[in-house]
Design goal:
The structure is a single chain. The protein has 107 residues and is mostly helical. It has helices spanning 3-13, 21-51, 57-80, 86-106. It folds into two domains: 1-51; 58-107. The longest helix is centred in the middle third of the chain and has 31 residues, at 21-51.
Amino acid sequence: MGRSRLDALVSVFVTVHPHETSALLHSFFCFFFILSAYFVVLPLRDEGAISLGLSNLPGLFVGSLVLTLIAAPVSSLIFSLPNLSKNKVLLNLYMYFILGLNSHNSS
């Protein structure tokens, strides 16, 4: 698909300048895949939590909240460091989770 056709297709849905099309599509697909992954993992997370017992659910939710409150500022700090390549940090973060999930599944 040519660049002008892509710009025309996108402009049907939103008002966008031609030089903004690439950033718009990248952000759309990033958000789409993050939400897709969330909704794939959500039932698995809920089923795992329920299998531990309904009495443990409040503790699991509080633990999830605490970990989120710690992880968000730490990741923001890491990504804001000027001497680190954002691409390498993101790749290493993905590899950490990929290896963690693979080691958990193989046990």
